[in-house]
């Protein structure tokens, strides 16, 4: 985070994630970079970013994506927070051009601290993958709930989620 003014910063985020196996032909690795401004207005915070990423499967190029993302955080009282996230990305699939897609996501979250050591929240989310081929295009949505408790030097978290996926067409 680099301060630009008293009410704005420049944020840079780098994320590397992967599932690695004994046989590298199944490795799934993703690298992404986000950069953009974050603005503070009163207690609200708005962040916008340009996003780019690459994914490898079996150590071979699988997909590249780029686009815009943003989030807005709004405190609700002293113990709660409302958050809205959205993104619009363009994905180029190196393995199957029929899976090239415009991807849109949105989510709304509400988090609350019940006490100094407990809390929880709910999240509603949705996404649209508008792929070149209708067999790979889909819409999904769902929700999740979570609760946590601090116990000594450990945080215990319980969560549950539901997601529904609808494809535009059958593949076969």
Note the run of SSEs as H and E: EEEEEEEEEE
> What percent strand?
over 45%
Span of the ends, CA to CA: 49 Å
* Strand order in space, largest sheet: 1-2-3-4-5-6-7-8-9-10
The 3D shape can be described as globular
How many distinct helices? 0
What is the structural class? mainly beta
Mean pLDDT: 96
Tell me the radius of gyration. 19 Å
Main beta sheet, described? Answer: 10 strands, antiparallel
Would you spell out the secondary-structure blueprint of this structure?
Blueprint: E1 2-5, E2 8-19, E3 28-41, E4 44-57, E5 60-76, E6 80-93, E7 101-113, E8 118-131, E9 138-151, E10 154-167
Antiparallel strand pairs: 1-2, 2-3, 3-4, 4-5, 5-6, 6-7, 7-8, 8-9, 9-10
Q: In words, what does this structure look like?
A:
- This protein has 172 residues and is an all-beta fold.
- 0% of the residues lie in helices and 76% in strands.
- The chain has no helices and 10 strands.
- It has strands spanning 2-5, 8-19, 28-41, 44-57, 60-76, 80-93, 101-113, 118-131, 138-151, 154-167.
- A 10-stranded antiparallel sheet has the order 1-2-3-4-5-6-7-8-9-10, with no helix packed on it.
- β3 (28-41) and β4 form a beta hairpin.
- The radius of gyration is 19 Å and the shape is globular.
- The mean pLDDT is 96.
């Amino acid at each position: 985070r680099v301060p630009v003014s008293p009410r704005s910063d420049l944020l840079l985020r780098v994320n590397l994630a992967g599932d690695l196996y004994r046989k590298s032909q199944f490795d799934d690795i993703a690298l992404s970079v986000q950069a953009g401004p974050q603005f503070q207005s009163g207690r609200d915070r708005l962040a916008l970013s340009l996003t780019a990423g690459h994914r490898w499967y079996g150590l071979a190029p699988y997909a590249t994506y780029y686009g815009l993302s943003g989030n807005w955080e709004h405190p609700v009282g002293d113990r709660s927070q409302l958050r809205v996230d959205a993104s619009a990305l363009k994905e180029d699939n190196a393995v199957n051009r029929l899976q090239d897609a415009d991807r849109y996501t949105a989510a709304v979250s509400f988090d609350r601290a019940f006490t100094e050591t407990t809390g929880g929240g709910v999240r509603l989310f949705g996404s649209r993958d508008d792929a070149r081929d209708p067999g790979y295009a889909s819409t999904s949505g769902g929700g999740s709930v979570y609760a946590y408790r601090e116990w000594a030097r450990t945080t215990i978290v319980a969560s549950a989620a539901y997601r529904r996926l609808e494809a535009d067409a059958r593949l076969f």
